[in-house]
């Protein structure tokens, strides 16, 4: 028993000096953004110079306190999504303006020069996932009015 106790302190020192990894994949830089906001317009399909298609849309995220009219300032973010042809891309392309969405995206800052030598930078967001949280407010009202009219017509 005494022999085992004498070995424990040296074993714990060896363990403290070793490093442990929690993943088998290589460490990568991470820059992600999560947005909850409303679509500025319906998403659009574009072709890149290489012929690959991508879906682009903008999301407005309200920030800060409300003003006297009850409105808030909004920050606008442009998002690109490389979605293969199929039901998921059709679903995203058919989301109407004003839909509240949750977007998880990879973020990257790109710098470039414009005419006159001015340096500019832009934030590029590439969608990882998107979830619809609610439909546009006016569309919800139109659906409830249609349901009310259908119920009145049935009487």
From TrEMBL:
Keyword DNA-binding: yes
GO MF annotations, alphabetized: single-stranded DNA binding
PROSITE patterns, alphabetized: SSB
Database matches in Gene3D superfamilies: Nucleic acid-binding proteins
GO biological process: mitochondrial DNA replication
Ranges annotated as biased composition (Low complexity): 146-155
Entry GO CC: mitochondrial nucleoid
Keyword Lipid metabolism assigned: no
Organism domain of life: Eukaryota
UniProt cross-references to CDD domains, sorted A to Z: SSB_OBF
Region ranges (Disordered): 134-155
Comp. bias regions, Polar residues: 134-145
UniProt feature coiled coil, ranges: none
InterPro entries in alphabetical order: NA-bd_OB-fold, Primosome_PriB/ssb, ssDNA-bd
Keywords: DNA-binding
Name of the protein in its database record: SsDNA binding protein
Source species of the chain: Zasmidium cellare ATCC 36951
